[in-house]
TrEMBL record:
This is Naringenin-chalcone synthase. The active site is at C144. SUPFAM superfamilies: Thiolase-like. Residues 9-206 form the Chalcone/stilbene synthase N-terminal domain. Keywords: Transferase. Residues 220-352 form the Chalcone/stilbene synthase C-terminal domain. It comes from Cystobacter ferrugineus. It comes from the Bacteria.
Length: 353
């Protein structure tokens, strides 16, 4: 009888992040910029302190660049191109490491921070000597959940071409779109968002070898599209974020998880590692309460929120990197990656360590 070859699955080969060199604590950015911008917003300092963010990284120094007032979107995108080439490029180079670059067949990237053509992915691929036949996919302006369509694209590419490697990158430079609109919603947003890039290299490996991406699920909560947005204005991109978002996510998370986990014969109680996008402390608290998870079960999400802030689409990849670095997941344990963004859209991927 001919032995049956083990099933091959999309598998994490490496992951690496990079951040801009400038790091500021909440106190430093408040005293250097927000104290003046939001002086007429009651309790602005307390609002920023309550975000759960201790420090963040910045693609530029907004205390200097925006001290004299607002800047046009074109000027902001020029900074995105310059800084992104450096920081995103560092993340991709670190993730590739000693992997055979001739086997890289596809490069999928997302950002919500800037647009240019050719994109950063082309310049980085050229600089790193990747094959000229590389297939590039850019996912733009989908919001904080955009790492998931990037990962799904990589999963599909690996399934179709199992002998190739795929680069999956999320890069966010949200500080490039700070603005001085003095209202409480913008104080919350300016207190949360930071800058970072993170890259996954995915390949195909036999079942059970390495961190494997088993399946994904997406839900569009069509009736809640007005609760979160990320739109272009003359002076940059601007976000709106309703305080009702944490309650809506908590209301729908059980049904979402049933659809993600049920086809694999799993329930929430079977999940050892929760890799939840730390959109803010209220989101983590609401989901933790609904799922009956104490703070230790979401340690990596809280850590990333504290040390990086909400880095948009990059954040859930930073959480994955932190889990692998610090939580020592054991072979065979399950994890759920979850993210949320405008729509409201809820995304999830089931992984097995």
């Amino acid at each position: 009888m001919t032995p049956v070859a083990p099933e091959r699955r999309p598998t994490l080969l490496s992951i690496a992040s990079a951040v801009p060199p400038l790091s500021l604590t909440q106190e430093e950015i408040y005293e250097g910029l927000f104290k003046d911008w939001f002086k007429n917003v009651p309790n602005a300092q307390r609002i920023i302190q309550n975000t759960g963010v201790r420090r963040r990284f910045f693609a530029w120094d907004p205390r200097v660049e925006l001290k004299k007032g607002r800047m046009g979107v074109g000027d902001r995108v020029r900074v995105y191109e310059r800084v992104g080439l450096q920081v995103t490029g560092e993340s991709v180079q670190k993730a590739l490491g000693e992997l055979e670059r001739s086997r890289v067949g596809a490069f999928t990237m997302t950002t919500n921070s800037g647009y240019s053509g050719p994109g950063l992915d082309l310049y980085i691929a050229k600089k790193l000597g990747l094959p000229s036949s590389i297939r590039r996919t850019f996912v733009g302006h989908m919001g904080c959940f955009a790492a998931f369509p990037v990962l799904r694209t990589a999963m599909d590419s690996v399934a179709a071409r199992p002998d190739e490697y795929v680069i999956a990158n999320a890069s966010e430079y949200s500080s490039l779109h700070y603005h001085d609109t003095p209202d409480p919603e913008q104080v919350v947003i300016h207190g949360l968002f930071g800058d970072a890039a993170c890259t996954v290299v995915m390949g195909s490996a036999p079942d059970g070898e390495g961190v494997q991406f088993l399946r994904s699920h997406t839900e569009q909560l069509y009736d809640t599209h007005e609760l979160m947005g990320w739109n272009m204005h003359n002076d940059g991109f601007r976000m709106n974020l309703s305080p009702y978002v944490p309650f809506v996510l908590a209301e729908h998370v059980d049904d979402f998880l049933e659809k993600l986990l049920g086809p694999e014969g799993l329930k929430a109680g079977d999940i050892k590692h929760w890799l939840i996008h730390p959109g803010g402390p209220k989101i983590l608290e609401g989901l933790g309460k609904q799922l009956k998870l104490d703070k230790s079960r979401m340690r990596a999400s809280w850590h990333v929120l504290s040390e990086y802030g909400n880095c948009g689409a990059t954040t859930v990849l930073l959480v994955l990197e932190e889990v692998l670095r610090s939580d020592n997941p054991q072979r065979g344990e399950y994890g759920v990656m979850m993210g949320f963004g405008p729509g409201l859209t809820v995304e999830g991927i089931l992984v097995r360590f």
